[in-house]
Amino acid sequence: MENKGYREFPVISNEAVVENIYRMDLGGDFIAEPGQFFMLRSKGAGPLLSRPLSICDISQGYLTFLYAVVGEGTAILSRKRPGDAVQLLGPLGNSYKVKSERKTALIGGGIGIAPLLYIAKTAEIKPDIYLGFRDAPFFEKEFEAYAGKLQIATETGGVGYRGFVTDIRNWDDYDELFACGPMPMLKALSRKVVDCELYLSLEAHMACGIGACLGCAVETVHGMKRVCKDGPIFSAKELIL
Amino acid sequence: MENKGYREFPVISNEAVVENIYRMDLGGDFIAEPGQFFMLRSKGAGPLLSRPLSICDISQGYLTFLYAVVGEGTAILSRKRPGDAVQLLGPLGNSYKVKSERKTALIGGGIGIAPLLYIAKTAEIKPDIYLGFRDAPFFEKEFEAYAGKLQIATETGGVGYRGFVTDIRNWDDYDELFACGPMPMLKALSRKVVDCELYLSLEAHMACGIGACLGCAVETVHGMKRVCKDGPIFSAKELIL
Amino acid sequence: MRTDLAGISLKNPLIAASGTFGFGQEFGEYFDPGILGAIATKGLTLEPRMGNRGRRIHETPAGMMNSIGLQNPSVAVFIAEELPRMRSYGTEIIANVGGAGIEDYEEAIELLEATDISIIELNISCPNVKEGGMAFGIRCSSARRIVRAIRRCCTKKLMVKLSPNAENIVDMAYTCAEEGADALSLVNTFNALAIDIENRRPVFNNVTAGLSGPAIKPIALRMVYEVAKAVDLPVVGIGGISNWKDAVEYIMAGATAVQVGTANFVDPLTMPKIIEGMQLYMKREGIQNLSEIRGIIGGNHG
Amino acid sequence: MRTDLAGISLKNPLIAASGTFGFGQEFGEYFDPGILGAIATKGLTLEPRMGNRGRRIHETPAGMMNSIGLQNPSVAVFIAEELPRMRSYGTEIIANVGGAGIEDYEEAIELLEATDISIIELNISCPNVKEGGMAFGIRCSSARRIVRAIRRCCTKKLMVKLSPNAENIVDMAYTCAEEGADALSLVNTFNALAIDIENRRPVFNNVTAGLSGPAIKPIALRMVYEVAKAVDLPVVGIGGISNWKDAVEYIMAGATAVQVGTANFVDPLTMPKIIEGMQLYMKREGIQNLSEIRGIIGGNHG
Ligand SMILES: Cc1cc2nc3c(=O)[nH]c(=O)nc-3n(C[C@H](O)[C@H](O)[C@H](O)COP(=O)(O)OP(=O)(O)OC[C@H]3O[C@@H](n4cnc5c(N)ncnc54)[C@H](O)[C@@H]3O)c2cc1C
Ligand SMILES: Cc1cc2nc3c(=O)[nH]c(=O)nc-3n(C[C@H](O)[C@H](O)[C@H](O)COP(=O)(O)OP(=O)(O)OC[C@H]3O[C@@H](n4cnc5c(N)ncnc54)[C@H](O)[C@@H]3O)c2cc1C
Ligand SMILES: Cc1cc2nc3c(=O)[nH]c(=O)nc-3n(C[C@H](O)[C@H](O)[C@H](O)COP(=O)(O)O)c2cc1C
Ligand SMILES: Cc1cc2nc3c(=O)[nH]c(=O)nc-3n(C[C@H](O)[C@H](O)[C@H](O)COP(=O)(O)O)c2cc1C
Ligand code: FES
Ligand code: FES
């Protein structure tokens, strides 16, 4: 038992990678498992509740978040400048490891690509990576070094496969899939995948992030589970979506 | 009628002059009368209501506030760094001019010295200036260039007169006095001054700053008046303190 | 966005809330009050009132408490000195009337009867005056007495302003409807307490004061929804409205129009911004008339 | 800061509020729950409940709304699986009991009677379950029925948790006192509404949900003040407490102890920070015992 709670970290950089999508690097020596997340907030200003953000990357001396500006909390975050500080609780939630004996693909949709980078980086063997975007891809180059195959899909067809990333191929020749993205994408994937193990990283509105409020509950075959504590990663088989 | 409202200005500098007392310079071409104030807030973060701050100084291209950190609003302000922005409404309230034909003294207590600088700077003739502090004086050097006589009082006696600034002397050989500071100081002065015109700059808790909420009302011989709109400067004769 | 409020046609459903817009003059420096649907005056009483002594304003998380105490120059002075100027704005003026006893209310209404004002907002819900005021707004039986008495002498449209401190807001609404109110507005401020722990006493001389602002919006919206669903009168939604999205929420909950209070203090341009925001919203969503979304979440309006 | 709550001695007056602290386990990673005065369990029901579907959490200005719907493993499973671990913390455990009908409540209490728990918190105020729950907490007549029934079968200390949606919170308190409650805790969440304007429907499947957090503090504090002044029972203050100053305000309003809810989500270390802050405050002010300031603004306690 450590008396930790929220701790403050300095912003090293915080830049838009494309419109409305920011990359923020925080200074510090972080230890966390791939697929985990942090609860994040500003000090003494901004909304009451913290915002959950996935670990996008951890490097020597810093942690990277990749986030979309969708509302007040993320807008305040986007205005942070180097030298400002943010407060983090975590790392939180369960994790996911790509194992050498399993042929694995990582599938990300939109801002759902965020957790895939650190998962790929910490993999025992390079996974294939499939990234889907509405229009222009972003941040995709970062994945090159860690991907077996890297394939892009865009709904508008501007780059790569034209259409949904879930439709790029038949997935059943993989042993294992890990997917993160909007709920319709995850549902579509669940329906398509028959013969391989599918793991989904879920989002839910959270108050506490530590398993106390039951606000993030999701229905499973084993009863209600908490996205923040029992997840965010669930086997698709267990979920009742 | 101009559609103005709150406007955003960049912070040029924001430094502690002594512990808990900050000087903030904002970039812009400001036009305002001495003794007026602004309502001030951060963009999209921080408390609901804006904070009133007096004009401490206006120079070519910038405006200076001198403020004490007393609570949440001023604490947030004190964390602003060059390049950040704050939003201002104003200038608001009435004003005060030192006139050449009147022998005038300006009396400030604690952070109440803030509005005196710009009043002295815009005076038709150099007023005498009396500044009172609890312990160590601050910002007093800034007044030197604009003061006839400059005298300091400290309650602890470390610098200058030992005791309250109001007790420094008999004030009745001045034609006019302008005072700003804590209410007990203003009351003491009102009691002591017999024979010269005394103007007091008041503080009150404000919601709107523009005369609409009646939250800042003060009792006068002419009924209730609003510190934000009819003041902040009142003739002591008119006030029922 | 023209809106019919109990037979009175407003330019749009945005009304400045009583006590937060003075008599309009102060805001004239920032925008043309004529763009508003209506302005509710500061609460008027038969006799002039100097209001409460001591602290009048206290900030709370996302809200504020006030204890102004109905400071106002009296109905007579309002009619003589303020109304002519307010008339010149070219928007509907709503006279908000407070009082201590029923007779005071009645005499105040009588004076207003002689004016060209078309809507009276009967404030039976001000928590900041010791006598009368909110007392009428808590129990249906007292509300019934005052609304009945006023209805008898009031030929203007009568809008009763409800207190969220009412024991049962829906029963209160029924009662006012039964007694002939033409419209209801809600909510006034919530009775609340703040303590100055340094000095070990309440912040306000009256001990309690009225809470308003964004903090109360979720509760006020629920009340407006319940009342709009229950009674067959136009309901004006009030409580914490700060932007066009808040205003749209109230309309979707069943409000015919809305009032903006505390947000006018936070930014004097709040109301013009809301009007613009709603216009853009309606265009974007292809909404011709707000009745298309009014009460759409399940009220009986729209 | 030892505090007597209806004859039960607590280490200090800081109690974790029901539904915001789970069964303590999650917070064990951050601090030793044994430092708390007491922990109120998540609301327990006779049968296990999976809680509500759809959105459960919605943020509001300085507050949050929840519609958890009393998700819990049942009283029996609590007793078998959670209570032994909770006992090991070495702090008082308060069993918060909810239910649909009176019989459910009675049976749940019976099971708890067989345990060594000394305080039952009777939740007659949960707005998030369709049947029962808050319905009991609105009118005195329903409250009387349930408190009377429970009092008959409950030999533990009985603390009734009041709803701020009660028609009259003071009458409600009297009623509970008359029926033999040993203590009162207030407030539970305020019934509130949020609308998803993009999709033109309520955010929550149940339409309304419960508002908590700093936004409600001024109203909750006023209610605690009124109740503490009126009835001769210990009152536990709840609503928006986020720091030691808030806690001191409640004590000065007359509360015997306080519960911290939403603030536990905002920072898991809120409660240890409050305990520390209060200790420093008491030292600085030379306060030996909180009774020196309890109700000091004018209640009947202290
Ligand atoms: C485990 C987890 C990991 C996440 N990782 C990332 C990430 O790496 N990058 C990224 O851009 N986003 C991520 N999200 C989503 C991110 O938390 C939301 O976009 C963010 O909370 C929105 O806050 P806001 O104030 O800008 O938006 P608003 O819509 O104003 O927020 C209002 C409230 O709703 C909540 N909320 C809104 N959208 C979501 C959402 N999609 N999921 C959960 N809560 C939401 C907010 O937290 C807040 O409480 C993650 C969510 C979860 C649950
Ligand atoms: C016309 C005018 C000019 C002022 N000029 C200056 C100045 O130049 N420098 C300076 O340091 N201070 C000045 N003040 C006081 C300053 O406004 C307060 O110190 C500040 O509002 C405190 O905010 P806070 O959030 O830090 O404190 P908190 O105590 O947390 O504030 C809580 C609430 O009380 C209000 N409040 C607290 N103290 C005061 C006060 N003394 N006067 C008015 N409202 C208060 C706040 O505005 C806020 O609404 C002036 C006040 C007025 C009315
Ligand atoms: C400073 C202030 C003064 C008010 N004065 C009155 C008044 O005189 N008469 C009245 O009916 N309501 C009065 N109100 C209540 C408002 O009209 C409104 O009902 C309430 O503030 C809730 O709306 P809001 O959250 O938008 O402020 C006043 C509110 C405030 C904040
Ligand atoms: C997520 C959540 C769950 C809650 N569950 C319960 C419950 O099961 N039983 C109960 O009596 N109160 C429950 N409450 C109410 C709290 O115990 C408390 O009364 C209320 O939140 C007000 O306090 P606060 O403002 O400190 O949160 C819950 C509150 C929240 C926010
Ligand atoms: S966010 Fe509170 S339990 Fe998951
Ligand atoms: S602050 Fe609103 S009238 Fe002065």
Structure, explained:
The complex is a heterotetramer, with two copies of chain A (241 residues) and two copies of chain C (302 residues). Chain A has three helices and 16 strands. Chain A has 241 residues and is mainly beta. Chain A folds into two domains: 7-92, Translation factors (Elongation Factor Tu (Ef-tu), domain 3); 104-203, Rossmann fold, CATH 3.40.50. The model of chain A has no long low-confidence stretch (mean pLDDT 95). An eight-stranded parallel beta barrel of chain C has the order 3-4-7-8-9-10-15-16, surrounded by six helices. The model of chain C has no long low-confidence stretch (mean pLDDT 94). Chain C is of the alpha/beta class and 302 residues long. Chain C contains nine helices and 16 strands. The structure holds flavin-adenine dinucleotide (2 copies), flavin mononucleotide (2 copies) and FE2/S2 (inorganic) cluster (2 copies).
